[in-house]
Specification:
heterodimer; A: 114 residues; mainly beta; 4-stranded antiparallel beta sheet; globular; B: mainly beta; 7-stranded mixed beta sheet
Chain lengths: 114, 113
């Protein structure tokens, strides 16, 4: 089972910031938080990941609480093309020698509206 | 840099047939993983290969198999197809940095009639 809890769906107005929450209260010390998104009928797209510090890249920012039990993905200026299902995943970067085994939950369906 | 390439993108098979799907990872990536996505079960991990060796396997029957070649390209095979095998099959590769991010291809959509 997925070790994260996300809202089923969210709406966001175009041009506004989209803040997607994720709860991961059982996260272990060596586990990272990863975010992916999947636009309809396409392969998932890696967005960002972090361990305990806040991270920012050209796509998004990731804010992790100090106790690491929750995080928020921020899309600073959402566009219609950001409409997608967003998945929050926690796991160790090198999980028993394996990198490829991700457990995807149901994610959050973000709808960006004009 | 070219992304992960999967072929074919779409295919239709009938029950009992077998199918082979191909995946070319991003250049320099040696780890390749496969996932099945269905409306009911979501994204599920099938298996992972690294340096031509299966490193991890999900909970799927033995009809699902895979392999990886010396150039890191990978194939997966499904034998004796069932209607429930209709799905989007996704391949992902991981960079050698060991930081755990996956880069997915567009998938191969299999329909079993």
């Amino acid at each position: 089972d997925a070790k994260t809890t996300q809202p089923t769906s969210m709406d966001c107005a175009e041009g506004r910031a989209a803040n997607l929450p994720c709860n991961h209260s059982t996260i272990s010390g060596n586990e990272y938080v990863y975010w992916y998104r999947q636009i309809h009928s396409q392969g998932p797209q890696y967005i960002i990941h972090g361990l305990k510090n806040n991270e920012t890249n050209e796509m998004a920012s990731l804010i992790i609480t100090e106790d690491r039990k929750s995080s928020t993905l921020i899309l600073p200026h959402a566009t219609l093309r950001d409409t997608a299902v967003y998945y929050c995943i926690v796991r160790a970067a090198n999980y028993g020698g394996s990198q490829g085994n991700l457990i995807f939950g149901k994610g959050t369906k973000l709808s960006v509206k004009p | 840099k070219a992304g992960v390439t999967q072929t074919p993108r779409y295919l239709i098979k009938t029950r009992g047939q077998q199918v082979t799907l191909s995946c070319s990872p991003i250049s320099g990536h040696r780890s390749v993983s496969w996932y099945q996505q269905t409306p009911g079960q979501g994204l599920q991990f099938l298996f992972e290969y690294f340096s031509e060796t299966q490193r991890n396997k999900g909970n799927f029957p033995g009809r699902f198999s895979g392999r990886q070649f010396s150039n890191s390209r990978s194939e997966m095979n499904v034998s004796t197809l069932e209607l429930g095998d209709s799905a989007l099959y996704l391949c992902a590769s991981s960079p050698p940095t060991g930081t755990g991010e996956l880069f997915f291809g567009e998938g191969s959509r299999l329909t079993v009639l």
